[in-house]
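Order emerges. For instance:

***
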Amino acid sequence: MAKIKQALVSVSDKTNLVDFVKFLSNDLGVHIISTGGTARALLQSGLKVTEVADYTRSPELLDGRVKTLHPKVHAGILYRRDVPAHAKEMQTMGWEGIDLVAINLYPFESVIRKPDTPFEEAIENIDIGGPCLMRAAAKNHEHVAVVSDPADYGWVREELKNLDGDLSQASRRKLAQKAFQRTSTYDQAISRYLSERL
């Protein structure tokens, strides 16, 4: 295992986010990549952040529908650090790994709870990039930590502090399981919503 050096942060629920990212950036020296409103919130708090459009050199597209769906982002998350061919390919591309993903999803469930929510608004609150990031990081959890719930920031921070910027494999697996559980319940909510409108 290796220290976390670079993190991607993209959240709708910003509860306790600034303190967590301050710890990553200021205490551990982690380079922070972020998107849209999350990047703005972090910058306003005085944190140094690289916006994902600057990181990928590709602008956000289609009113923000396409932000993180980029090979540089997903290769950084999915590449196996223990496979020399992967490391060589990343080096050839000039890309670095993303070692932690702090991510939560557009609030689809809370939007559709409002009885007067227009169908079009519900559809726009279906997250695409978020679940992709969450699943990619969870799949590669041996090398990438995925934090999908703000309630986990506290204990993740403590373990990172105690393990000199790393997380145990047991903790990585726990976080991965939680991420897959979240994408599963999210998709179920979308499926139920659409089924009720057939």
